[in-house]
Amino acid sequence: MKHVTLQYKVMGIGNWVSATVSHEIARQLEIEYKDYGWPVRILELDSKAAA
To answer: Where are the beta strands (DSSP E) in 1-51?
Structure first.
């Protein structure tokens, strides 16, 4: 299963919140959080570091 780092800012303010989740979950959360108007970014994990 491929994992990524999901980052978002609640209500667009404050620090970025980070969570490592599966790619599929990240995409679903990205859709939901963008619907709220929150900034969201998904960062690919380094496959060598994850191994």
So the answer is: 3-8, 17-22, 40-44
